[in-house]
Write a structure and sequence with these properties.
Strand 4, helix 8 (191-196) and strand 5 form a beta-alpha-beta unit. The chain has two domains: 3-83; 93-225, Cobalamin-binding domain (Rossmann fold). Helix 2 runs parallel beside helix 4 and helix 4 (63-83) runs parallel beside helix 5 (108-119). With 226 residues, the protein is α/β, with parallel strands linked by helices. Helices cover 53% and strands 11% of the residues.
């Protein structure tokens, strides 16, 4: 994270928490127009702002503040995505972006990654609500879509085992059996946690790639398409 990203995140967060959503979003739109920041760079700012709220050491930011900030961030994602239209030059395939764990409610990152992939030329089926495997597979069967890429996330260590089980089921489902599976989480900056994401019987990773951030995941996905 560079100094500019941190500074812009603080400015954005100040507006958001002071109940000035229009100024918060205008700040990001101005950065896109004047600084020519990419969608990825703008979403990095939003991600850092979210982390600053989550790591509030003095307890100044309340739960209500956090919920309000999340609502502002979702509106910012909508506004920024419109400034970066879907690529009409690429057809990278079909991507499933889904929350596979019912106890995971922090899915703003998934939403941002869905928009990044759209801008890259992917056809994205984004499922924001937490879904158990049975509900997800029923939805996929109804769409009869074969996905080239499947992405999900995890934010809590306690959910890693449940995620592994869900990914194993994803591997066995006809809609995603041949999909490239990518899981994104800051948790994967810890190699010990990366090592835990292995099938004990086969000794193979339960995903094709474990990304620690947006750049990490997108770099891998692009490399698979080249």
């Amino acid at each position: 994270m560079n100094e500019d990203t941190s500074r812009y995140a603080e400015e954005y967060l100040k507006f958001a928490l002071n109940k000035q959503p229009e100024k918060a979003i205008s700040l990001l739109e101005e950065l896109a127009d004047t600084k020519k920041l990419s969608l990825m760079e703008l979403f990095d700012i939003l991600t850092v702002a979210q982390q600053q709220v989550s790591c509030d050491p003095h307890g100044v930011i309340t739960l209500a503040d956090e919920h309000y900030r999340t609502d502002v961030t979702l509106k910012a994602i909508d506004a920024l995505s419109k400034k970066f239209p879907v690529s009409g030059k690429k057809d990278n395939g079909s991507a499933l972006i889904a929350n596979l764990i019912e106890r995971e409610h922090h899915t703003v990152g998934l939403r941002m990654f869905a928009e990044i992939l759209k801008a890259e030329g992917w056809k994205v089926d984004y499922l924001a609500s937490p879904m158990n495997a049975a509900s997800l597979f029923k939805r996929m069967e109804e769409s009869s879509e074969k996905f080239d890429l499947a992405c999900c996330t995890v934010t809590m260590k306690s959910n890693l085992e449940e995620l592994k089980n869900a990914l194993q089921k994803l591997r066995a489902n006809p809609s995603t059996a041949e999909s490239t599976i990518v899981v994104g989480s800051p948790l994967f900056s810890d190699q010990n946690l990366v090592d835990k994401m292995t099938d004990q019987e086969s000794g193979r990773p339960v995903a094709d790639f474990l990304a620690k951030d947006f750049d990490d995941g997108l770099e891998f996905i692009r490399s698979r398409k080249n």
